[in-house]
Model the fold of this input.
Amino acid sequence: MIILLDKALHSYALPLMGVAVVIWLVAFVTWFRDRKKRGPFTGPVYDVSPLFLKSLLAFAAIICVLLAGSQAVVIAARKEVWPILQGRNYQVKVRANGHVNLDDLKNALAKIAEGSAHHSHPTTSYCVELTSDHQSLRLVLKRDSQNLHEYWVFYPKYYATKLNEVGRVFTGALDGAMPVK
Done:
């Protein structure tokens, strides 16, 4: 189910955003036309045309559906990834040159949590493969631009979680490593 939602969002997000922009333009033109007809301010602000309100609501609905759908995929991905990381019954491989402290990395991944935004962005990327008897999991850890021990965790299985993190971890396990392209 979540894969279908993710693929639908990926396929239809851009066209839906285009429709939303066109609807917003209709709302703006309607508002401007109505304002021009009325002349200078003549009454309450809520005195607007029904077409303006419908257009504005349609625009907001499209944007809300896209954001909610994307967030639903991220939440489902977290529910998929987090139990595996808590189990610690897996082997870790990192595509990097240099020293990687795998035990520290495994401990950090077990403490994955939702991160709060602090006006930074992800930088250097490390591909991390987790393998257990039953499954394998590929994650991408991206170092934070401000806190060098903070890593944004992405789950590239879904389109939505290639761009939106599923959590953040804090570790010095990758300090001596350079990522392999």
